[in-house]
Design a protein that fits this description.
With 237 residues, the protein is mainly α. Helix content is 83%, strand content 0%. It has 11 helices and no strands. Helix 2 runs antiparallel to helix 3, helix 2 runs parallel beside helix 5 and helix 3 runs antiparallel to helix 5.
Length: 237
């Protein structure tokens, strides 16, 4: 392979959906597959669906010397769910414990912001980069601090994760309050409505406060890079 081919391969962005697929879709999908298709108990389904995120987390620590945020978070959620699977008897308590997943994810996302590694960035990137090489390069420059608008971009990146962390924690509080104040039969379906509503709020608020501005900054950075290339060509000519 020539040097040009190597550089081109290095600059080509990897499939941005791969981390989401392996760290989120596979464990969540396998849980429902084991539980519904194979008739496993909740405990067994959670245990087996934890295998992939556990392996991914250990592999990242051993090979890359860093934690895999998404895989680690899903693993923690599964472990919390495993512990809560022993809770039974009180129907209201059973409804309330479902909110533990949202609260665990919300706390994990907020903690990642404090640690300087906003966890929702991995989920946001595919929708802003759109598998475009120029956008990918602009994203890397902005995220790496090598662009004029990097400070604003990094601030918006943190805001996006904060929005989702707060929304998930708020959803947890609403569902817990509802579990002990609303009739059980009503809360069974209302819990799903609250969850969908929270996702909607997260999408709208996250888009308005962070994703939208970040996309505009990426477009501006791409245009600036193109103008710079044209200027260099003009000087060389």
């Amino acid at each position: 392979m020539t040097t040009t081919s190597v550089n081109k391969a290095q600059n080509q962005p990897q499939n941005p959906f791969r981390p989401l697929l392996l760290d989120v879709a596979v464990p969540v999908g396998s849980y429902y597959l084991f539980r519904e298709a194979f008739g496993m108990s909740t405990f067994a389904a959670l245990a087996w669906s934890s295998v992939v995120p556990a392996v991914r987390t250990v592999w990242a620590v051993v090979r890359e010397r860093k934690a895999n945020g998404l895989a680690g978070l899903i693993l923690v959620v599964n472990l919390v769910s495993l512990l809560l699977s022993f809770v039974s008897g009180d129907p209201r308590l059973m409804l309330a414990k479902d909110s533990a997943v949202s609260s665990t994810i919300g706390i994990g996302i907020l903690a990642s912001v404090v640690l300087g590694r906003p966890m929702m960035t991995a989920a946001l990137k595919p929708f802003l980069v759109k598998a475009d090489v120029a956008r990918h390069a602009a994203w890397e420059r902005l995220l790496g601090g090598g662009a004029v608008g990097s400070a604003d971009f990094l601030r918006a990146e943190r805001v996006f994760s904060v929005v989702w962390g707060v929304v998930l924690l708020a959803e947890c509080v609403v569902r817990i309050v509802g579990a002990y104040t609303v009739p059980v039969d009503t809360m069974v379906w209302l819990g799903s409505v609250v969850m969908v509503g929270a996702i909607g709020v997260g999408i709208v608020a996250g888009g308005a406060l962070a994703a939208g501005p970040m996309e505009r900054m990426i477009v501006h950075e791409v245009e600036a890079a193109e103008e710079g290339m044209k200027a260099q060509v003009a000087v060389a000519a």
